[in-house]
TrEMBL record:
Family of this protein: Belongs to the FBPase class 1 family.
Protein name: fructose-bisphosphatase
CDD domains membership: FBPase (cd00354)
Signal peptide: 1-18
Residue span, Fructose-1-6-bisphosphatase class 1 C-terminal domain: 272-402
Lineage of origin: Eukaryota, Sar, Stramenopiles, Ochrophyta, Bacillariophyta
Length: 406
């Protein structure tokens, strides 16, 4: 009886006309509409039934995407690399607290943001960089752990490059790493943009400042608003390792089956509850927040807010874990601006924008209070942004409070 549940139904999305994709063994395919706000139109498989025993792996899912959207075939290579990197980081995080572990403790360096780098920060950064570089599909990389973006096309001569389909990756290799020694969940966050192919440097003919300017133009490829994201994903290293991604047509969650060594689709087409009664902030900062947010949170605490519900507080202090819980149970996660740090703490490029993309694609909202995070044009790589994201009704309550205060 259980065996019959393992027949998978893949529903793909198309802009206009219904189109039956080729039938693959044990997969039925029909169509539906989905589009990105940046006008990208995707056909994305929605796997409605998840096989209880073997399931749909991340590789299989990406192959379905490539079959339906041949122009995204190169993206499957990138996701293959990220899949491997997340598995490698899972093992490193698990072993990091053993006395014999080479990744225990601090590196003795401070990153550009003045934070003490842990050995794990450095090594996970290397793991991701290498995994992405050797796909041959990368143009520029920007990471929390790198002072400036890396122009792989023009400077990393030893990397393997294909001559088409370069992407830009922005990532935080180990978000929440300050908690790792206490066994608290950490995560990897990645955003993928298209690379501007016109930025290829002409070493032969450029001279001096001209070369520097060309390089600057290439590196500025990383400074794109979230609305340009082609894909975003996070890996959460916790009780299980979760891999959650969006390609702009829904949010999909996979769980690592360690026996198989594969990410298996466990949360197809995730939808955040529209309303909830959980809030997740560093509430020690409440007195420094903007007035409208203080008021809304007070209402949630005492049950006099819009929903009339008295909220509970849940804050791990590790963004990926807090956002993952918020996606599954609903609620609000935020790191707002305050009088000390007007732009809050989280980084726009490799934390705010990718996580907002994932949240929006699950039906949630992500705002600074007054602006959609996805629409903010970054001016520099390590720029911070105030963030309040989560269940639609609760975030609307926050935005209404800000609008009323204007
Ligand atoms: P961390 O410093 O441990 O890397 O991005 C930074 C971050 O963690 C987020 O993961 C987390 O949400 C936030 O900082 C926690 O900051 P506070 O300790 O100020 O609450």
């Amino acid at each position: 009886m259980k065996f019959s549940l393992c027949v998978l139904i893949a529903v793909a999305a198309s802009s206009a006309d219904a189109f039956m994709a080729p039938k693959a063994p044990a997969v039925r395919t029909s169509l539906n509409v989905a589009s990105l706000e940046n006008t990208r139109v995707l056909k994305v498989p929605v796997l409605d039934e998840v096989c209880e025993t073997t399931g749909v792996t991340l590789k299989r899912y990406m192959n379905e995407v490539a079959m339906l959207n041949p122009e995204l075939t190169e993206l499957t290579v990138l996701f293959g690399a990220i899949d491997t990197a997340c598995k490698a980081i899972t093992n490193m995080v698990k072993r990091s607290q053993l006395p014999s572990s080479e990744t225990l403790g601090y590196q003795g360096e401070v990153n550009i943001q003045g934070e003490d780098q842990k050995k794990l920060d450095v090594i996970t950064n290397e793991v991701l960089k290498r995994a992405l570089r050797f796909t041959g599909k990368m143009g520029v990389l920007a990471s929390e752990e790198e002072d400036v973006p890396l122009d792989l096309v023009n400077t990393e001569k030893d990397a393997i490059f294909a001559d088409t389909g370069k992407y830009v990756a922005v990532f935080d290799p180990l978000d929440g790493s300050s908690n790792v020694d206490a066994g608290i969940p950490t995560g990897t966050i990645i955003g993928i943009y298209d690379h501007d192919e016109n930025c290829a440097m002409d070493d032969e003919s450029c001279e001096g400042d001209e070369c520097a300017q060309q390089e600057l133009n290439c590196l500025s490829n990383t400074l794109q608003a979230g609305t340009n994201l082609v894909a975003a994903a996070y890996c959460l290293y916790s009780s299980s390792t979760f891999f959650v991604l969006t390609l702009g047509a829904g949010t999909y969650g996979f769980t690592l089956d360690e026996n198989l060594g594969e990410f298996v689709l466990s949360h197809p087409n995730m939808k955040i509850p529209e309303t909830s009664s959980i809030m997740s902030f560093n509430e020690a900062n409440t007195h420094m927040w903007d007035e409208p947010l203080q008021k809304v949170v007070k209402g949630w605490r005492d049950g006099t807010g819009k929903s009339g519900q008295q909220f509970s507080s849940r804050y791990i202090g590790s963004m990926v874990g807090d956002v993952h819980r918020t996606l599954l149970y609903g609620g609000v996660f935020g790191y707002p601006g305050d009088t000390k740090n007007v732009n809050g703490k989280l980084r726009l490029l490799y934390e705010g924008a990718p996580m907002s993309f994932i949240m929006e694609q699950a039906g949630g909202i992500s705002t600074t209070g007054t602006k959609r995070v996805m629409e903010i044009q970054p001016e520099y790589v390590h720029q911070r942004v105030p963030i309040i994201m989560g269940s639609k009704n609760d975030i609307e309550e926050v935005m209404e409070a800000y609008a009323a205060a204007e």
